Amino acid sequence: MEYQLIDGKATATTIKSEISEEVQRIVEAGGKQPHLAAILVGHDGGSETYMKNKVLACEKCGFKSTLIRFDEDVTEEELLACVDKLNKDEDVDGFIVQLPLPKHIDEQKIIMAIDYRKDVDGFHPINVGRMSIGLPCFISATPLGMLTLLRHYNIPTSGKKCVILGRSNIVGKPMAQLMMQKHYGDSTVTVCHSHSKTLKEECLEADIIIAAIGRPEFLTA
Questions:
Q1: 7 is catalytic
Q2: Cβ atoms 36, 30 nearer than 8 A
């Protein structure tokens, strides 16, 4: 059996180059330069790296970017005020609030406060609902990235049996929704999780397996 390596980094580089060219054409034609903003609370190493990569990606794509930092003791009211300011800023096309947030802040309350039309993370219930019925919306980055890789490598998904490992709101559930929709994956989807009794059997019968559980090498040959 022959295997093909799906190179996410190479694919991302190609897509960023294509976006950069498109942005250049838009700006040269008198259009607006896209502007992405991000809110980062605290100094978590993983979040710092993620934000740094986002800023670099914006540069490569020709986007304007703004990073807003708060210390961990920021109040919920201060954070909500910042979200409201970005909602109203006509120059900002979209923004993200990096999760997780400190325990004294209600994450869902912050997500609900984001204008769904600027919710590029796709976490707002309106975007989740629109995605579930196939309407245009922002889609969570990881599921959309997986779908983009499948399309980039011309991997057939229509009619295939797809097993999703994981049921998180950020990856597992939206991935399952996308893979079952006709104009995306058009697959027969099974979602497995830590309490699934037939996990091995489901995976052996699958044409496509998407691991979304955050545990490296959980799935072995």
A1: no
A2: no
